[in-house]
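Lecture notes, unit on protein representations.

Consider one protein chain, 244 amino acids long.
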Amino acid sequence: MRREILLVFALSLGASAVYAIVALGAKLTSGQPLGSSSTSINNSKAPPTRPTLDLIYQLLSIGFALVPVLLAWHFIGVAGERASVVLGIDAGQPGRDLARGAVLAALVGGTGLGAYVIARHLGMNVSVVASGLPAVWWRLPVLILFAFENAVLEEVLLAYLLSRLDRLGWKPWPAVAVSAVLRGSYHLYQGFGAFLGNAAMGVLFGRLYQRWGRTMPMIIAHGLIDSVAFVGYVLLADKLPWLH
């Protein structure tokens, strides 16, 4: 099971954490203050003259990014468990899941925006360009798809990690601490503020998964938070300079 965990995360969030640490190191050793740096996510993958090709690349990126989720789901099944039960992913509680997800999104999203602004002011975070996509008809739908791809990938894999650590005999709080540090680590390319904010989110979401036994509320919350961040950046970045 330990090898299984290492393989799943070496193909997904663990690899992202390593790249994020290297990216942060590159920024810190560039000779420029961290606060004067920027990073762009959700970028174009084709020349501006080929928007259809760009769309194809975007959809392929979203699809293949979710393969580690299927791998984790497979490993849970191989262990003789029902992944939908272990992870709490089903349509059995739609109203409760939506309500919990919406409340979490409002709480974490609002707090996260404030933390980002403070971290930028303190020079602990880089400026995050939330969309580098061209102004074409599919930009907003693709950004929403990216938001929910992030949500499914992160929340399912971190719930999978907590479930496996529980099977290995870990106590709840140490397991949550590991998952929270991992969540913060793959955001380090944005700076120290992003690490702290996402680690705190990881503690909250991890404990709620352990208590509720469901991942659906966290997927909904995470998808809503990222959707608002991505779409809001496109619509408001020029009007709200403090976002930069």
